[in-house]
Amino acid sequence: MLASKRILLIIGGGIAAYKSLDLIRRLKERGALVTPVLTRAAEEFVTPLAVSALAGEKVYRDLFDLTDEAEMGHIQLSRSADLIVVAPATADLMGKMAGGLAGDLASTLLMATDTPVLCAPAMNVRMWDHPATRRNHAQLQADGIRFVGPNEGDMACGEYGPGRMSEPLEIVAAIEAALGDGPLAGKRVLVTSGPTHEPIDPVRYIANRSSGAQGTAVARALAALGAEVIFVTGPADVTPPEGVQVVPVQTAQQMSDAVDAALPVDAGVFAAAVADWRVAASEQKLKKSRDGLPALEFSENPDILKRVARMDQGRPQLVVGFAAETDNVIEHATAKRDRKGCDWIVANDVSPATGIMGGSENAVTLISDQGAEAWPRMGKDAVAQRLAAKIADTLNR
Ligand code: CTP
């Protein structure tokens, strides 16, 4: 799918540079032409010879190499590409890009181009969380730079958290999406995610423990395959992914309205933990009173998944629900699929012993008309990628 696309791959100096060797292979397998650029620091992690052998092209290394300038100036080098990929995008490279510095070949290429740029950041978790990196990331996003990752997980430095470079195949998917080339290109997909907050009065609300991590990962994975993603999210702990249309909501009713506004879509993935009930909220803050405890009056929220799955007209081709269960997972989830009328249910066991609710891993069973398919326990990102790939297969069948 990437046949004859020219990718200028800037490899920054970080331990994740070893994954860039595999990335080159994967891109070549798909027919892309890869022109590699190594920063000086990158040469401490991977050799120019290995990079050039895999890419089958000359490696560009130094701004002041006069032979290179005679053969192909740095301006032309950056402009002749269909996409510039920075992997790993180190804190240093991101800082240079955000600040407009051009003191070496990599940063000059990035300054001298109007070609789209995709960054795959990789750095220690503290560096990723540092206010300077937060500022640079926000600035680069505002400048229209695309990002894939970083992922959360164990890091080479022994710490845990966001900062791991995305896996080569995730980067390939993001490259395909950036070039408008993924298997979900042209498809419109809705994802609901996160908890809802149901107000009791102006300062109090009823909520649940959903972090929004799984829904966010699903939206990211779908976007990486080229889908146009409408991401309707309640107040989640995690930040929304890049490259999706974010519709923030608070309550179930607002989520329901936002879903209606997003239709028609080719597929809907309903990962939100929607509150089943809302409270007849007081306009004033409830006060302690001598007359006893306040009586909260509940009414039922719209069941968004059920309503969309049972639409007579304009039903998405594929409707996917989630079921968080604490016992008899398959039995309950199968019954839920029938009750809601959706095509698939992604069921998981959220009993406290599993550590899944709020954790980084998930163990799901996919219930469809083909029966129950148990997936091994894996990271929420991996679950999302597998689900997105299956959605792409189904929509393209
Ligand atoms: N859902 C929804 N709108 C609601 C409630 C749930 O869209 N008002 C969706 C969720 O996003 C999820 C699925 O329905 O995809 C979960 O079903 P639900 O009946 O909420 O599950 P539980 O709350 O676990 O149901 P029960 O209490 O019956 O186990």
Helical run tally: 14
- Mean pLDDT comes to 92
- The number of distinct structural domains comes to 2
Name the CATH architecture of the largest domain. 3-Layer(aba) Sandwich
Radius of gyration: 24 Å
The top level CATH class name of the largest domain: Alpha Beta
Distance between the termini: 18 Å
Strand content: 15-25%
Which key terms come to mind for this protein?
397 residues; alpha/beta; 24% strand; 14 helices; Rossmann fold; binds cytidine-5'-triphosphate; 2 domains; single chain
Characterization of this structure:
The chain is of the alpha/beta class and 397 residues long. 34% of the residues lie in helices and 24% in strands. The chain has helices at 17-29, 48-55, 66-71, 74-79, 91-99, 105-111, 125-129, 131-142, 168-178, 213-224, 252-262, 304-309, 329-340, 380-395, and strands at 6-11, 33-38, 83-89, 117-121, 146-147, 151-154, 160-164, 188-193, 198-201, 204-206, 228-233, 245-248, 267-270, 277-279, 298-300, 318-325, 344-349, 361-362, 364-368, 371-374, 378-379. It has an eight-stranded mixed β-sheet, sandwiched between helices. The chain is elongated. The mean pLDDT is 92. Bound molecules: cytidine-5'-triphosphate. Cytidine-5'-triphosphate binds next to α12 and β16. Residues 192, 252, 270, 272, 274, 276, 301-305, 321-324, 336 line the site of cytidine-5'-triphosphate.
